[in-house]
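re: that complex we talked abt at group meeting.

here r the seqs, copy pasted straight from the sheet so there may be weird spacing, ignore it
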Amino acid sequence: MSASVEPGHPEPPDGEAIIAQLKEAGVGVIVSVPDIVTSDGLLWPISKDPDFQLIRVCKEDEGVSICAALSYSDTRAVLLMQQTGLMDSLNAIRAIAMDYHQPVCMMVGLQGKAPGETVLGSASYGVRIIPPILDAMSLTHVGIENDTDTPHIAPAINSAYETGDALCFLIGQSPIWTGESA
Amino acid sequence: MIRRDFALSALRGLIKPRDLVVAVYQSCFDWLALCPRDLNYVSTGAMGQASSHALGLAIGSPERQVIVLDGDGSLLMNLGSLVTIATVRPQHFLHLVFENGVYEVNGAHPTPGTGHVDFAAMAIAAGYQKAVSFSELETFEAALPALLAADGPVMAVLKIIPGEAYPRDYAYIHSAAARENFRAALNRNDG
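got the structure back, here u go
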């Protein structure tokens, strides 16, 4: 699946809608290392939302293991992090998510990607290498660039837990938060 | 120093049917030979990740006792997990660290800090409720029931030497069957 974006829709996605999709998919646990792209629009609201148990980890690969282990009790979880943490966790993802075929769901903020540019066309080396790396790992990725992408989240998570396939959302713009401030 | 298989045999006598045991490397191979059971979680995948898998299991099944059979080299790769675990504070969580000072299955090269690192002190500093080191089997055996009953997370560091050489069955620990056996048993016992 391509992570390329549609240049005609530059407005950032609504964080409240993304969170609603997570709830619709039955996600009850968020495991995270803070990421500046998703901090205000996702992580801070999630941290104040009683529908989620937030597990703050020291390093992202901890989260890969936690999410995989939670799947045994059918507890749905999402690992929220930056692409730097994704890169740091590749061996854990390779082994635990891919070799073991386990439904580790990740949501990754692409720090350094400018609004309006595609992921593959990003001026940031650290951003544009992400889709080819995930492709090489056969890891499904879904671009979340604006509100038209958001409805794909719940179905993708449902599919991941039904098939056991790992999944990675790539958040290309900082979600905005228009919901109630806690 | 404690023979690892003797320490594991002591633990075997106290394991309850619903307990979850997460094991890595040689401790895992020894444990599988000494105490084969479907609720042994052996598919940790990447080195250092046992404690994090165990935390995930503890969050998903908070009423169950979770026991981690970790190695010193493995834990050194994931020291941050001590802080994460202490923050979540799973109540029934016993973290056993088998300290032999070497990467046993990777050529027996020494770990950094061999003989100087104090894992129990690290655990306490990270926020574990209790952490104790043992170098004599009898002392460990006497303390084990209380360690299992204590509010977690609890760490016990065992200064060990190898015991009987049990076969290293990597094919099993990485197999889909091992994971499916665990999943089926976990959900069967949840009923």
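couple things i noticed - Strands of chain A lie at 27-32, 53-56, 76-82, 105-109, 140-144, 167-171. The longest strand of chain A covers residues 76-82.
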